[in-house]
């Protein structure tokens, strides 16, 4: 079959006269919503030409079968609500029942959506396999370290006595105070000696004299919890 024959078969029949008027009116009543003339002609698939559609709509409005509304420069047409049939009570009741059922079903679906959203958020916040492996390795390392600390007790080694703890605490305080005092004396003396020297010469002099300054490890230890003012195990404050 040729393309010309197919075109002739699918061509929409153009309505005229009363048929065209009935088609336009039936469409507006069926849809029961405002339309412009262009939209009506387009939705009728060309069965009524645009020019004819405009004339028919105006004519139907003059007859009171439809209502014509002007919004700015645009004209809309809608079926006259006074001419529409009232919905029977039985049908209205059925529609209300259907509405309630649909509303309940919608609530259930919303609950399912909320539950699914919460589950999705939980899954997204859950650690990945890589993160779990890292945590397992860290936990295993902590367990191993704790077991190693407990090993002397398990082997029967005597625990440190209260007197030994007091002695260690006293020695720590004494030696650290001595170190702090001597470091202060040295820093004062060194500042006087190198006050007039450029930084490069001061560094060279320290290397020639074999002076060792605090390393990053010493600085980190000094800023750590061991050297911070705190109460010892036995309640004695360190300085």
TrEMBL record:
Stretches assigned to the Homologous-pairing protein 2 winged helix domain: 19-80
Pfam family for this entry, one: WHD_TBPIP
Main localization, broad class: nucleus
Single GO cellular component term: DNA recombinase auxiliary factor complex
Location in or out of the cell: Nucleus
Molecular function via GO: double-stranded DNA binding; recombinase activator activity
GO biological process: homologous chromosome pairing at meiosis; meiotic joint molecule formation; meiotic strand invasion involved in reciprocal meiotic recombination
Keyword Nucleus: yes
Sections of the chain in a coiled coil: 92-126
Keywords, comma-separated and alphabetical: Coiled coil, DNA recombination, Meiosis, Nucleus
Family under the similarity heading: Belongs to the HOP2 family.
Protein name: TBPIP-domain-containing protein
Species assigned in the record: Cristinia sonorae
Lineage: Eukaryota, Fungi, Dikarya, Basidiomycota, Agaricomycotina
């Amino acid at each position: 079959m040729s393309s010309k024959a197919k075109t002739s078969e699918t061509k929409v029949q153009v309505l005229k006269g009363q048929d065209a008027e009935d088609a336009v009116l039936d469409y507006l009543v069926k849809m029961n919503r405002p339309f412009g003339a262009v939209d009506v002609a387009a939705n009728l698939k060309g069965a009524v030409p645009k020019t004819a559609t405009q004339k028919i709509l105006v004519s139907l409005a003059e007859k009171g079968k439809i209502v014509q509304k002007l919004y700015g420069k645009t004209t809309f047409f809608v079926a006259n609500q006074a001419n529409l049939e009232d919905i029977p009570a039985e049908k209205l009741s059925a529609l209300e029942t259907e509405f309630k059922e649909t509303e309940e079903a919608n609530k259930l679906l919303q609950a399912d959506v909320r539950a699914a959203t919460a589950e999705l958020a939980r899954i997204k916040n859950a650690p990945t396999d890589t993160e779990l492996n890292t945590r397992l390795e860290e936990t295993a390392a902590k367990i191993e370290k704790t077991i190693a600390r407990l090993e002397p007790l398990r082997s029967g080694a005597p625990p440190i006595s209260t007197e030994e703890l007091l002695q260690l605490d006293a020695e720590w305080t004494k030696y650290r105070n001595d170190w702090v005092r001597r470091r202060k004396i040295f820093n004062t003396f060194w500042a006087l000696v190198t006050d007039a020297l450029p930084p490069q010469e001061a560094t060279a002099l320290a290397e020639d004299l074999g002076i060792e300054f605090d390393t990053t490890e010493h600085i980190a230890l000094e800023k750590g919890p061991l050297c911070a003012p705190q109460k010892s195990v036995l309640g004695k404050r360190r300085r």
